[in-house]
Amino acid sequence: MLHKLLVSHVETPPGLDYIGGFCGGLMNDYRRRCAYCRSDWLTDVLKGKTVSGALFLFFATFTSTLALGKHINDVTHGVIGINEYLIMNSISGMLHSVLGCQPLLVLRPTGPITLLIEKLHEVSEWLVLPFWPLFAWTGIFVGLYMFLIAATELSRFIKYVTPFTENIFATFIGTVYINDGIQGMIRVWNSGTADVAARKLLVFNMTLGCTALAYYLSKIPSTAWGTYTIRKLLSDYALTISVFVLAIVGAVLDAHFFPVEFIDTSSTGLTTTDGRQWMTDMGSITGTGILAAAVAAIPIVMFFYLDQNISSLMCQKPEQMLGKGAYFHSSFACMALFNLLGPIWGLPFVTGSLPHSPQFVGAMTETDEDYRPTGVVENRVAPFIGYLLMGVALFLPDLLNKLPETAVSGALIYVGLKAALGTQLWERFLLLFTDPYKPRLGKGYSHLPLKTVHGFTLLQILMVVGCWLCNIYIGLGFPVFVASLIPIRFKVLPLIFSNEDIDALLAEEGEPPKKMPDSDVDQLANIEDAEGEDTEKAMGAEKDETSSRQCL
To answer: Could you give phi then psi for residue 107, rounded to 5 degrees?
Structure first.
C-alpha cells in the first residue's frame, strides 16, 4: 500500500514492471538478458571502450577501496583492513560480471558500508560480544532479508525515488569521497616529522595535481586541443593517465629530491589483516548476540535497498541509452548472496556504488564527433577485467608500492567531484553566486521566480547536511533518514512549493522546458541587448586605438 501513502501516479521506469509470483521478477530478468549472451562475451567485446572502461573501473574502484580499507583498519585497530576489502571487491565483482543481469552496475564496499561496519564493531564492544560471529550472523540475516526483497519484487517501489532524492544522495556520496580524499591527504602529510612545511606543500600539490589533471583530461573534449581522436583518447583514459603521471613524478621526487609516501604492501596477499583463520566460528556467540544481529541487519538492509537500487536507477535511465534493457531484481539477489557468504569469511558487505556506477556507464558510452552519445558498449568482459586486475594487484606488491598515497587521495577527490558537480543541485547552487538569468535560459525551471529556485536549492542543501549529521552521530540509524527523503518529497514539498514548480525544478536534462513568461523573456532580451551594445562599444574602442597606433 506504499503507493497510496505516497502518491497515486508515478511513472514506472523500465525494468520495474510488476510480474507477480515468488521470484517472478527475478526470473524475468534472466529470461530477458539471456538473449544477449553471445554479444555480452563476443560481438560487443571487440570495441575500444572495453579496454578504456576496464581501466577506468580498475583505477576508480581500486583507489577508493584501498582508501576505505586503510580507514577501517585504523578505526578497528587492525581487525579488518585492505586485504578483506580488495578480495571481496574483486571476487564479488567478477561473479556479478558473470551472474548479474546488469554487469555495468559497479559494486564494492562503499564509504557508508565502512561506516556501518565501524558502528557494528562499536556495538559488539558495547554489548561485549565477539565481533566476527556478530558480523557473520548479521550477514546471514542481511542476505536473507535482501533475497526476500528480490523474490517479492519490492525493488519496484524504488520508482518513488525522484531526482529530488537522487540529487541529495549523489551529492552526499560525492562529498563523502571528497572528504575521504582530503582526510587521506592530511594523514599523509602528518606522517612525517622532518621538513613539515615542505612535506605538506608537496603532498598538497601532488594530491590536487592528480585531481586537476584527471578532471581536465575528462573535460578536454569541450576544448579545441588536438583532433577528435586524440581528445577522445585522453578523455577515456583521464584517471589512468593522471595516476601514472603521479607515479612517475613520485618516483623522481623520491629518488632525487624529497621522500614520498608510497602504498604499504606489507599485508597484501591471501592473508587476513589480524592473522585469524578465514572461516568464522558461528557457534561462538550467544542467542542474545544472534538476536542483536537480526535487529542490526534491518537498518543495514534499508540502506542497501536505497543505495543498490538508486545506483541501478541512475545507471539505467533511458537517457543513458542502454540497449539491452534495465534490470533490478537480479542484481539485488546477487548482492543478497554476496552479503550472506562474505561476512562468514570475514569479508565486508558490497552494494551498488555511487558515483562509480553511472560514471562507468559514461566511460562505456560511445559518442559522435560532436560528442553526442550514440550508444553504450554493453558487455561483461570490461567489468570482469577491471575486477580481475584488482585481485591480481594483491599479488603484485612490487607494483603497488610504486603508487604514491597522494594518487589514492587525488583519485578519491576526483571521483567525488565528478559525482557532486554532475548533479542538478550543483547547477542550481551556482545560481546563488552567478548571473541569475543566463544560466537558467533553456532550463525547465527558467520561468520560475529566483526566490523559488533558491528556496528549493537551500532545502536540498539542508537535506545533504542532515545526511552528514546522521552519518556522524546516528550510525546504524543513518539509513532511516535517507529513506525519509521519499515521503518528504511527496508529502512535505507540496506544502511549500506548488506541484508545477516541483516538476519544473526536478525536470530531467533534455526534457522540454515550460514556456517562459513574456516578462522573463523581455528581461533576458534586454540583458542580451545591453551586453551586445557593450561588446560593440568595446570593439569600436579597440578599433580606434589600433588606428591611432598605426598613425603614430
So the answer is: -125, 145
The alpha carbon of residue 87 and the mean position of all alpha carbons in its chain are separated, in whole angstroms, by 20
The pLDDT of 117-146, averaged and rounded, is 92
How much helix, strand and coil, in percent to the nearest 5, is found in the chain?
A: 70, 0, 30
- Can you tell me the distance from the alpha carbon of 161 to that of 457, in angstroms, rounded to the nearest whole number? 18
Is residue 38 domain-resident?
yes
Q: Are residues 133 and 17 in the same domain?
A: yes
How would residue 523 be classed by pLDDT, with cut points 50, 70 and 90? very low
Please answer whether residues 379 and 103 qualify as being in contact, where contact means their C-beta atoms are separated by less than 8 angstroms.
yes
Cell 525519509 -> residue: 484
* Whole-number Å distance between alpha carbons of 161 and 483: 9
Q: Which helix (H) or strand (E) holds 375?
A: strand 373-376
Where is mean pLDDT largest: 283-292, 400-409, 517-526?
283-292
Q: Which three cell numbers stand for residue 338?
A: 554476496
Residues 504 and 456 in one domain: yes
Asked if omega into 355 is within 30° of 0 (cis), the reply is: yes
Evaluate whether residue 430 is within a structural domain: no
Identify the weakest region by mean pLDDT among 55-59, 114-118, 269-273, 380-384.
269-273
Is there a domain that residue 427 lies in? no
Classify residue 428: in a domain, yes or no.
no
- DSSP H/E element including 504: helix 499-505
What is the domain count for the chain? 3
**Residue 512 CA from chain centroid, whole number:** 27
Q: 473 to each of 123, 469, 470, how far by Cα in Å?
A: 14, 6, 5
DSSP β-bridge partners for residue 107: 352
What is the C-alpha to C-alpha distance for residues 325 and 12, in angstroms, rounded to an integer? 14
The residue type at 3: H
Give me the chain's average pLDDT, please.
Answer: 82
* 499, amino acid identity: N
Q: Are residues 214 and 310 in the same domain?
A: yes
3-state secondary structure of 108: strand
Q: Which DSSP symbol is given to 276?
A: -
Cell 556504488 maps to which residue?
A: 353
Beta-strand pair 365-367/351-352: unpaired
Q: CA 140 to CA 316: how far, in whole Å?
A: 29
